[in-house]
Structures are given as structure tokens and as C-alpha cells.
Amino acid sequence: MKVFFLASLVLLSSFISHAQVKKSSTLNSSNQGFLIKGKINGVSNSDIYLAHYFGSTQQVIKDTALADTQGNFVFKGKENLPQGLYLISFLKNKYLDIIIGNTQFSFETDTLDPINHMKFQNSVENEAFFAFQKEMGKRYSELRNIELAKKDVNQIATLRKEILQYQQTWFEKNKQLFVSKLVKATFEPEIPPFKKKVSSAKDSTELYQYQFSYFKKHYFDNLDLNDARFIRTPFLQRKLDKYFEDLVVQQPDSIIKDADLLLTKIKNSEVRRYVIYKISSTYETSNIVGTDAAFAHMGEKYYVGEPALWDTVTVRQMRDRINVLKPLLIGKRLPELFLTDASGKRVTTSSIPGEYTIVFFYDPECSHCREETPKLMAQVDYFKSKNISVLATSIARNKKQWTDFIKEFKMESVYNGIDIHPNPKTGKDEYYTDFIKKFDIYSTPIIYILDKNKRIIGKKIPTDKIQDFISFYENRQKELGIK
Q1: Is there a contact between 477 and 451 (Cβ–Cβ < 8 Å)?
Q2: How far apart are CA 54 and CA 86, in angstroms?
């Protein structure tokens, strides 16, 4: 939908612009700018890019250099670089991850084995980072070979223990460095043994519940949620994505509860902005029915409710967006539609009978509407069997196009309406409805499904999924004991 794409762009651009305006606490304290000298043997007369991660799906280019015939290049600038995990991109689809803390260093490697042949000068963070990668690569390679050869299980266990000991020693040695936090963030929480003996199905269920609860509660333990450098790594976004996709029930109340709980742990304003933005944009664009209530909550509580975190334009736009969405959330009674039918009589949402009502918003000139309308009308017998009424609503105000559309697609068996109302005194046509502001119709067709009390139970349902949705809804009602 166009609105989702555009609104997400507003959230993203406002986040980045605000972050640029605010002076980050993770910038280098000195005002030396940056000077990074590199040499990659095997690269010649090629563009080299320096970029930092922005979450796991985006990179922000900070500088470009041209390597000479020997593979030498220099990144240089007067502005400080925000700290975090960067990548140096060279050749096609080849890159190196490096840590930017100190910004005055040099390195040399080659294209054959960039990690194992890497040498740094004046960069303690990267020396520790690459030493860890080299050692872990060597140890895991040895472990894989032994496992593939199916050698003694005791030998495999010993190697695994040695790997764990190496990691613990490395963490202790480098605990003052960001790289230690960075590597630790890739580890998932270790679940303590279940104290009860598992001897029945009930015990198995309790074991699963214990493991799930512990894992969820401690999921972010290995990631410092108040270190803004993690915004410029892939790990914070990956953690957030997995948490809300796999560990949070995709229902508004659960999403809201877990989002609020997570944000109580985050005091750093830069991380707070990022997490709010990520959760909000996820549920603004979600295809799961009803989760836009979580987006409305995020917008109201953390954008409008915390204006100091955002620019005034973003807060105003979010307030406007919430004003549109809140009356259209699942469980709300659909705002009344006042339309005119083909005979010139008034037709309203509340006047439509039926156990359910499908409100089908369309534009007669919309190509997608012309594809979906036959799918809608092919279900007329099903609608009759379930006592479902259809109110087909043209958002375009052209009587001829509207009546031609009704005839072409044989829609006479459903309720049809258009927002054209002749004024009996002046004889002029009047329009009552702003479809964008009142019903969030940014593209067509859009379907709302209402219960017998005209409360919204589904929205933006694909035309060919209406029957599946009704079946799911009725089964869910039975499970809850609702008649």
C-alpha cells in the first residue's frame, strides 16, 4: 500500500536526519577527523568504499577512495566518524568488516585470504577482532574435520571445551574493548538445566515452557541495549527482528506489552529512537490483521508522547496518522458511510443487513480493481449462504464510470454506493467523505469486514482470502466461547 511505503520513509528519514542533527555520544572525543591507510594486494585501480552498517539491511557510505596499481588507498576526512562496525568494500561483492573506534590507523591484507593475512597498525580493537576470527576459524575447521571423520566423541568434546575456554579467556582479556561486546552480542542466552525429571507429556510441556520463558526473558542479556554503537552493526536489528518474529505473540496486546517492557531497559536516546523506529515501522507495514494497533500505540506513546526524541514535523505527521488509524482499529465500529445508490436513495453502513458486511472500496478506473472485482462477485453464493452483505463503494465521483462498472461486472446483486449527494435546494452535487482521512484508502481495492454490529473484524483482506478469513474468525470465536 502506498501509505505504508510513504509513512515508513517519513519514519526512516526523520530518524536519520534527527540522528545527524543531534551530536552523538559515540563520536570520537577528539576532533581529528579520520585517516585510514589501507593496502589490499590483488586490487589495482579500483574504487574502495568505507561504510557503516545501519541495522542489518542498510549501509551508509562515509568515504570513497581509489586504490593505486599496488592496492594502496587512503580514507581521509575532517569530520569524525561515528563508532561502530564498518565494512570496506572492494572488487565485486568482496568486503571486510572492521571496527571504527580509533580513526587513525593502517592495515594491509590481500584478496586471497583477507582475514588470515590481515595486519593492523595502531588499532587495538581490530587486532583483537581479527585475532579472534583467525583463531576461531582455525579451531572450528579442525572440529569440522574431526566430526566429518566421525572420530572419538571424547576428542570432539575436548575440542569443544577448548574452544569455550579460548572464548572465555579472550573475553576476559579484551573486556574493555567494544569488540568484546560485539562478539558477545552474537551469542544467545544459555539456558540452565531443567531441575525436574522429564517423565511424562506434562513434564515435557513444562520443560518447553521453562526453556521458552527463560530464553525470552534473557534474550537481550548479551547485547548492551544502551550502547549506541550497536545501531551501526547488524546485530541490534537482527536481535529485534528475531525477538518480535519468533518470541512475541503476533497480537496487539502481546506486542505492546513486550515493546513497552523492552523500552523500559533502554535509556540511551539514540538507541531508544532506533528501537522505537524499528518496532513502529515493523507493525505499520505488517500483513497480520490487527497489528496496526501496536503501531498506533508506538506512535502515540513514543512519538507524540516523547517529542524531544523527534523533530516537530515527524511528531505532527505521526499525530495525524494516529488520528486516521485509531477509529479503524480491529473491534472499532466502522465510521458511518453516507452514500447514494443507483436509484438515487441514501445507503449507509448501518442500514446494510447481514451477519457480516464486506465493504469493498474501489475505483472504476483502477486496473487492480478490475482484476479483483470478478473474484469478489464469484463468491456471491457463498455470501448468501453465510448471510454476508457486500457494500461496493466507489471512491471516484463519476456517475457514468460507476454505473458502467456495475453493469460490466454484474454487481446488481450487491449494495452499491457512491459519494455523490444532490442538494435538493441548489441541485448541485455534494461530497461528504474524505476517503483517505476517514477510511485510510490510499490505494484500491481495500476490503473491510464487519460483524453484525458493524465492528471491524478484518481489513485489507485479499479478495481471494475472504472465505479463509471468515472461517478463521468463526473458529477463533468458538475457541473463545463467543457466540
Answers
A1: no
A2: 10
Q: What is the DSSP letter of 413?
A: T
Cβ contacts of 238-241, under 8 Å, gap ≥ 24: 238/56, 239/185, 240/275, 240/278, 240/279, 241/56, 241/282
How many C-beta neighbours within 10 Å does residue 47 have?
13
User: Residue 425: what pLDDT?
Assistant: 86
Residues 410-450 have pLDDT tens digits of 999 999 999 999 888 888 989 999 999 999 999 999 999 99
- pLDDT, tens only, 339-355: 999 999 999 999 999 99
Long-range contact set of residues 118-126: C-beta below 8 Å, sequence gap at least 24: 123/99, 124/177, 125/99, 125/101, 125/177, 125/178, 125/179, 126/98, 126/99, 126/179
CA distance 15 to 8: 10
Query: Is the whole model's pTM more than 0.70, yes or no?
Result: yes
Owner of C-alpha cell 572492494 = 90
Which whole number is the average pLDDT over 73-102? 94
The pLDDT of residue 24: 42
Q: What is the phi/psi pair of residue 302, to 5°?
A: -110, -15
